[in-house]
What we know:
With 248 residues, this protein is α+β, with helices and mostly antiparallel strands.
Amino acid sequence: MENVPPPSDASPPDRSGRDDGNRGASPALAWDDRGLVPAVAQDAITGAVLMVAWMNREALELTVATREAHFFSRSRGALWRKGETSGHTLSVREIRTDCDSDTVLLLVDPAGPTCHTGKTSCFYRKVQQGEAQDDGPPGVASSVLERVYRLILMRKSSTAAASYTKSLLDGGFPKILSKIAEEQEELAAELPTGEPKAIVHEATDLVFHVLVGLAARDIALADVFAELARRLGTSGHVEKASRPPKLP
């Protein structure tokens, strides 16, 4: 580790290194002898671990106050805000500490790839496979929906060369709804007797085009997940009866 003196805003810790938490918004943390704690950033939606950096008290308080991840650079001896040059910020939903209060966990919504290499996560090397590389840990299996949706949103705002997704969005709802109807019919045709592989293929097509439709309306995918979670464990009859009547 670098031989960097404690940041100027960090008061000397007690014998245990634990701060009493009375200053500003900082919780009680076991700062090290330099006034630092490691901070892990985890995607709030996918669960994928994105990066690890260091925080001093001021970085933590700025993160709490602004809801954007701030860290302390040991090599430069200075504060830095994630994405201050790249624009790939980390919007912080929640901050947790571990059982020993010596590590911080940030649950974040990343605005673009987190790693400076352009990878989604800084943890893109696989040690057991001769340091084979990918885009980082994928998170839970269902998180692929969020990753695809983010890519669709990027296509929506992109001015780069045309893509299939961009052509759908540029075509508006007549084109999007036509594709949703087409894919729905193809899935319905396969479901009764089709091969499992064909059913998976058509289901994937339908889900993708529904995601494009949601993106066209700027509907947050998290809201769809939240509604599914709300309905979980509730009888479908009860849930449907609780809805307000549709207007004629």
